[in-house]
Amino acid sequence: MGDTYTVGQYLVDRLRELGLGHLFSVAGDYSIEWVNSYVEKSDIQVIEEVNELNAGYAADGYARLKGIGALCVTYSAGSLCATNAIAGCYVEKVPVVLINGAPSVQKTLRFEQTGYSSHHFISGRETDRQVFEYITAATVRIDSPHLAPMLIDYALTQCITERRPVYVELLEDMVDLECTRPSNALKAAPDISDEDSLNQSIAQISERLQNATKPLIWIGVEIDRFGLHDQAERLIQDLKIPYVTELLSKAILSEDDVQFAGVFDGQSSSSYVQSLVKDSDFVLALGVWLTDINDLGWPIDLDKTAFASWDTVKYGTIFNAQVSLADLVNGLIDKRLTCKPQSLPAKTARQAPIVNPTGEITYQGFYDFIQQQIDGNTIVGADASLNYFGSLLLEVGARRGFIVQSSYSAIGYIGPAATGVSLAKQANQRLLVFAGDGGFQMTAQCLSTQTRFNLNPIIFVMDNGIYGVEQWLADASVFHGNRPFYTSCILHRWNYSKLAEVFGCRGWKVDTYGELEDAISGAKENLNSPSIIQVVVPQRSIPNNANWKAS
Q1: Known binding site: residues?
Q2: Which residues of 128-163 are buried (b: 16+ CB within 10 A; e: fewer)?
Q3: 300 SS3 class
Q4: At what angle do helices 83-92 and 52-66 cross, to 10 degrees?
Q5: Where in the numbering of this chain does the Thiamine pyrophosphate enzyme TPP-binding domain appear (predicted)?
Q6: Residues in CB range of 129: below 8 A, 6 or more apart
Q7: Which of 8, 71, 112, 482 is the most buried (most CB within 10 A)?
Q8: Top-tier CATH class for 195-331
Q9: Which residues are annotated binding-site positions for Mg(2+)?
Q10: pLDDT grade, residue 1 (50/70/90)?
């Protein structure tokens, strides 16, 4: 290739410029030339994944900490396997780039004009692109070296602006063709607020904050997605009032903060948080997304809650459109507001529970026990399962120290997402992951990738033999009586700890608290591979904060 600058190099350079350090990839002949000749020779490390779904979840977990993630797959048979992961990124505003290696122009024309098919074709050049149009912020097809720089720049700019996934279809015969070099660095397009809407919103919210007797801040996930952590902390400190988060935004600010009251997640919240929300006479919800997982069983009082999200402010009958969350928060800071004094949450250190070392582990007992294993260098991840409830009340001191996909809630997400988080986290941090056994069965091969690359998440698989959260959602009364579980919710039992022998990592099966303590000690010492701890719990055991739903 000499000094020739190519399309393949352009894409690599732009991804590296945006901070990408790892590319999750599954080998495919339409994409392998770009990976081998360009990515492998760059500063981006290729993480060879076991399947496209896991690669997508890994890129998602990586992007939540790094601000950009990427995976490379092959046409149709590969890319369509990743659609569920990309859909989750779209819903939860996670910036991931899907690079799809595609058949050449010649192969495409031959198929469309004569019917002679190359492998992986379905119906021609538009199939994959049309699928991903619905779940990405941009889809581009690189079939011209002259247009490649413009199309790549457009897609990547959309990715970092919208904080959503984008789709880049890279034809195999384009990779080595010459193109122009990048000129200016890529930047996210700035949010533009309507001046009148912004000023009205600042004035209305300022008035309510100052006049309220018990105002409350509700910090949502958009604070994290748009990088507004420092500004949010500044506003909270200036106002000197308590704040809560939601499950999706848990620990995006350190939960050691003296003004942090807890996670508000409807009736699954602590009694203190429920009382705080109920008694508050004004709630400012910054970047909060309302979902049935984030307001469990709780009727949100829209007359006392001002929602600033999705570039709008909604408060009672007030609706102000085109209001940037960043502009709103900065505007409120500039007002130097003072609120009526109120008591802040009382911070008391949790005492280690007294347990019988030979006692049977319960779901709630496990979470009471595990709190002592979480410090300021711990990242916690929870899957769509009954672990939502248990992990909700854990105290996590690390800023951005909690990973969950609670809006899209794809069962099986957290195991492979832990691969990406492990690569993106700080060197001094340790990742603890809580998975349901049903979800873990879907993506268990994550252990293979983690072992291959010497990653060391500690994965707790809660083994109760059922899709517990699905049974809970459909009919929670089963957990409080003797009626049988739905047949569709009963799992084929695995010996999860024995998977360590298959993948070359470490594994433990625990039935008692003494065994659990020993397993955790062993897992903490295992620094070069994942640790899987199979935690056997009774089928009808659920976390205490899930007991409110009896039917």
Answers
A1: 437, 464
A2: bbebbeebbbbbbbbbebebbbebbbbbbbbbbbbb
A3: coil
A4: 20
A5: 395-535
A6: 139, 141, 167, 169
A7: 71
A8: alpha beta
A9: 437, 464
A10: very low
CA 494-496-499 angle, to 5 degrees, is 110
Q: What is the greatest pairwise CA distance in the chain?
A: 77
- Name the β-bridge partners of 48: 25
pTM for the full predicted model: 0.96
In 3D space, the residue among 373, 366, 371, 369 whose CA is nearest the CA of residue 353 turns out to be 369
| Residue type, position 216, single letter | L
- For residue 474, give the 3-state DSSP assignment: helix
In whole angstroms, what is the distance from residue 56 CA to residue 73 CA? 10
Question: Mapping DSSP to helix (H, G, I), strand (E, B) and coil, where does residue 364 land?
Answer: helix
What CATH number labels 363-546?
3.40.50.970
Q: Which two tokens stand for residue 413?
A: 């997400």
Whole-number Å distance between alpha carbons of 262 and 277: 11
Q: Per-residue pLDDT tens for 368-389?
A: 999 999 999 999 999 999 999 9
* pLDDT tens readout for residues 101-150: 998 888 887 778 888 777 777 787 788 999 999 999 999 999 999 999 99
DSSP states of 201-245 as a string? Answer: HHHHHHHHHHH-SSEEEEE-THHHHTT-HHHHHHHHHHHT--EEE
- 13, 40, 145, 309 from 4: Cα distances, Å: 14, 18, 13, 46
Q: Which of 420, 340, 545, 354 is nearest to 88 (CA)?
A: 420
Would you state the structure tokens that stand for residue 142, as one six-digit string?
Answer: 């690189």
Name the CATH code of domain 7-171 (choices 3.30.830.10, 3.40.50.80, 3.40.50.410, 3.40.50.970): 3.40.50.970
Q: What is the pLDDT of residues 401-439, one digit of tens each?
A: 999 999 999 999 999 999 999 999 999 999 999 999 999
Distance CA 142, CA 31 (A): 13
In the chain, the amino acid numbered 239 is L
Do 195-331 and 363-546 fold alike per CATH? yes
Distance CA 146, CA 148 (A): 6
Distance CA 97, CA 175 (A): 17
Question: What is the per-residue DSSP string for 28-69?
Answer: -TTTHHHIIIIITTSSSEEEE-SSHHHHHHHHHHHHHHHS-E
Residue 253 structure tokens: 């600010």
Task: Let me know the angle formed at the C-alpha of 310 by 389 and 406, rounded to the nearest 5 degrees.
Answer: 20
pLDDT, tens only, 488-508: 999 999 999 999 999 999 999
Nearest to 344 by CA among 261, 246, 244, 237: 261
Q: Count Cα neighbours of 40 within 13 Å in the Cβ-side half-sphere.
A: 10
- Residue at token pair 């402010």: 313
Whole-number average pLDDT of the chain = 95
Domain ranges of the chain: 7-171, 195-331, 363-546
